[in-house]
Design brief:
Length: about 250
């Protein structure tokens, strides 16, 4: 079985690339650009300046977008340049868990920084892969963050579905990524909008608790600021700053 190799003397590039590959649980070999290439290496990742130094049929010089470079490398390694159906499964939350399937195989997993930045991930998937059809499936739980996620996807030329998680395999105690995988392979219904976002009392109290944790116990943001954070109108650090300045 062919594997990936990293061939570089650039420590910063090596560190970023190793972190990306380990997050995806992808095996790899570490080399210098001047090393002999083992026979089991199928694709080599390196920096553009080091690319001419490596004698191999499949060398990919990655400039700035590490994730895009890894996508290209994995496609080259698998020999699969196009996918018939790609599915994005999303477990909604304050930091949604996201999984990308290509013809049933897990290609990528990630945590979005917020419900709104799920759109950024999907747009990168759309740009980074060749596919016939892409479907986005969002779990129906966590109504506030679910609706924030759905609203962020408005206008994308994709089929957007809501999956009733009650009919998926029980995953209450599963990490968000595992839940996203189960959502991705479950049947859903088209997500017709609009999707109203309104924070609950419980979500407001939870955000106030998070503000205390993030500020090392110094600040508890007001209910109004907490509501704005829950509804995606402010970031938590911005709300803490406003409260600190007496603007809460």
């Amino acid at each position: 079985m062919k594997i990936l190799a990293i061939a570089t003397d650039n420590f910063e590039f090596y560190y970023d690339l190793v972190r990306e590959l380990k997050q995806r649980d992808i095996p790899f070999l570490s080399l210098s650009p001047h090393d002999r290439i083992p026979d089991n290496v199928g694709v080599i990742l390196t920096t553009p300046p080091e690319e001419p130094l490596i004698e191999h049929d499949n060398v990919i010089g990655i400039d700035e977008d590490i994730r895009m470079g890894v996508r290209i490398a994995l496609n080259a390694l698998s020999g699969k340049s196009s996918y018939h159906v790609m599915v994005v499964g999303i477990d909604p939350g304050f930091r949604p868990g996201v999984v990308l399937l290509g013809d049933g195989k897990v290609l990528e997993t990630a945590y979005a920084e917020s419900p709104e930045t799920v759109r950024d991930l999907i747009e990168r998937y759309m740009a980074g892969y060749d596919f016939h059809t892409m479907v986005v499936k969002v779990g129906h739980g966590d109504k506030t963050n679910r609706n924030r996620t759905l609203n962020s996807l408005k206008g994308l030329p994709l089929r957007i579905e809501i999956v009733n998680e009650e009919y998926t395999t029980h995953h209450v105690d599963s990490p968000d990524i595992e839940a996203a995988k189960k959502i991705a392979i479950s049947l859903g219904e088209i997500a017709y909008g609009p999707h109203h976002v309104e924070a609950t009392d419980g979500e407001i109290k939870e955000m106030q608790r998070r503000s205390r944790i993030q500020s090392d116990g110094e600040i508890t943001i007001s209910k109004d600021l907490a509501q704005q954070v829950v509804e995606g109108k402010l970031k938590l650090r911005e709300a803490i700053g406003k409260q600190r300045e007496g603007k809460g």
